[in-house]
Amino acid sequence: MRTGGEGSTTRGVSKGDAVTAAADTPMLMLNAPLVATRLGYPDLSGLDLLELFAFVHPAQFCVPTPKGLASALDLAEPVGDDAVPLLLQQAAGVLLARCQRDDWAEREGGWSALQSLIRMRWPWGQVLAPHIRRPDKAERWLFATLPEWEEAPERPQPAQVAIGQAETEAELARLTGSGAEKREGQRHYARETSRIFAPRAKRGEPHMMLAQAGTGIGKTLGYLAPASLWSKAAQGTVWVSTFTKNLQRQLRSESARAWPDTRPDGSRPVVVRKGRENYLCLLNLEDALQGGFGGRAAILAVLVARWAAFTRDGDMIGGDMPGWLGTLFRHRAIKSLTDQRGECVYAGCPHYKKCFIERAARASAQADLVIANHALVMVNAARGGAAGRDHAQRPTRIIFDEGHHVFEAADSTFAAELTGREAIELKRWVTGPERKKGNRRRGLAARLADVASYDDAGGQAVEDAVTAAELLPSEGWLGRINDGEPYGPIESLFAAVRALTYARDESGTDAGYGIETEIAQLPGDFVEVAQQAEIALAALRTPLVKLGGRLEAIMEDAPDWLDAQGRARIEGARQSLAWRVDLLAAWEALLSRLSGPADPEFVDWLAVDRSDAREYDIGLHRRWLDPMKPFARTVLEPAHGVMLTSATLAERAETADDHGNAQDWTSAISRSGAAHLPTPPLIMSAQSPFDYAARAEVLIVTDIKRGDLPALAGAYARIIEAAEGGVLGLFTAIRRLRVVHGRIADRLARSGLPLYAQHVDPIDTGTLVDIFRDDPKASLLGTDALRDGVDVPGESLRCVVMEQVPWPRPTILHRARRLAVDADATGRPGGGKAHDDRIIRARLAQAFGRLIRSRDDAGHFVVLSSAFPSRFLSAFPEGTPVLRLSLDEALTRIALGMGKSGGDAMADIGADISNGAQPAAEDNP
Question: Per-residue DSSP letters for 216-234?
């Protein structure tokens, strides 16, 4: 649609006409990559308002839709699509006008950045030029304006204090506010949580609690109340760990009730910690600004530099950088500005004292509350906390929110993967990047040049390591393997893995999905290749171990020239060495097992990873059969107090116990690591206050045949139309998601019902959820990432649709764990089936949990399954009406909304059954 101004009209055009117009004249648009995808015109370019917004207001978020833009700029929300073109012009006018105002908060550095962008021919450059005046004084280079962090003394051990339940209730009342509703479930939850902060009685026996808190309990403030009391009284640090970035943002907001933004000395009592790959690397940014990036990526680098001057903490992934910024250019360019490859030179970096990563690490060592993620907490515990590279205290009081994900986080954290990608990253760390640009030579020789010149043995170890690393894969390794010309023993191993995996593959799929085969009955030539690879890895590990010993000796008997910065650099190298030595040892252990008997503690397999028929990695994989064993040893035993909390920890039991509890904690105890501790965990449960019987219905649609993609797409379209948007569609396969979206998106758009989708739209998942939350007419399709951690209260989410029962994928790892359950000490038959059922019920419960997020929410949960086993119904909250019906009947109920009472709904179930509807048969995938 186009308009010439307030007095002009807007007209609709076809896709072809729109493409022609965009090719002829630069157009004013919003989110060019999304528009290009919808038009099917990848070469679309023009004046994208999101780029202008990112320049004018860096570190400020804006939902990338017309409504979101209007809200961010205090403009009237457009009423209908025909009002959008005028809004875009008004928005451009507002942004340009702000650049002329004296109170433009982000003026600093704007003029200099614009000059760079004009030289790069940024489309907005000449438009902006008349609106930004040249400053009286030359603007300082970004790297001169960033503040430096300061060293702080190590925090003493926390005091041994106990938190009383009465004072916990008083603190909770303070945090919730005097006018807040008093919820007994939340008070009970807070009182029980205070027990994990009691002094520990025995080494290796933490106070451990499993706490189920139904949706709406208010668990965040429930555990922050005793956590804030303990941290202030004990002068210690509480770690709260999440699985999703969305909850991290929520926690940062909620924590403001308990702690000020800064202490009197300027330090922060609350710190968000993430892995290094989430933060901007200043050295990478400098390289990009000085010619390392070209084309559109160079423009992105300048906009990132604008953001770096105003960011709160340098967090590029889920922090205050808009998630859409990277997708406007190339998401890979965003990643290359972070420390993705472990190339950090620590104190050898010219920006070390201003580094965002180092600042966050040091701040967390002094914090009262550290908000982290499950993987980082586990890695931090494994590396020894305060003695480790990140200077943070070892987590000793830990609350795992979204605790039902701890098992899978541990499964990934304690895995060993000898793959092409991992091997290349190790080689880059030892030798430096293969394509050297400017001064980016960051291998061991560059990092430790002064040490090598001082210590002959250390210098020789560096040389030996660099020589041995040359046998690791290098760029182009996949092409050489495909051509049958692998270089070196490791590439030869991957070639053998690829050949054997394809030879034994029985999946029958040519759709481009990854394939795998178990490590068993290996041919002799494969074992011989593996042995040569093992020798090559040992040849690299040996000089790295020797180098670590030389660095330790230098630290103990320091030469005169070794200043504080040099010490920090060597200490960083030591910790990095230890990590890589452990990695190599794990790889060697995996290879050495190939010529001997299998280790019953592990599951090993070979895999070729593919996406859309394109191979992108090859390797050998090892997972713990029970990853909670290393989790318990590494994380739980050294801790003093640990809680796992979630709305879906325990399962609903068929019968209540003597105390009236109708919950089965068997699986929760097993998947929390508590079973590996000498004392049983504390267990508590707080039921949701929501009236699910009156506010929700589960509709099981029985007339959509499995595998019928046209029928599936038609069902989704009709459901979205009946609900008038507000639908979250969950898929178990990306291929089906794409097919459904491709069939129905245009049809829905013509009805004013926008449809967005993961793996289709060029938008990151967090921004997709923000768009969905902001528009009650929008619907969103996605996979596992949207099944959990998505919080969309209110009108924007009125219906959740699952395309089928979420059966577990029949992988080698899943099969091994299923067999282990069948062979457990209980001797119960059908244990493997029960294992699958627990996974399915958990997924259903998590998906259902997206529907009702507040007392006023209401809606339908739809499963498009011709046969939904009755044994899965316990996944839904007790009392929730469940109806088995046809699609037409479901559409009628969805269109009516939740007008019927729970009693009426239950009466309908009886009517359905009396009219011939039968419970679904027990089925399997």
Answer: TS-HHHHHHHHHHHHHHHH
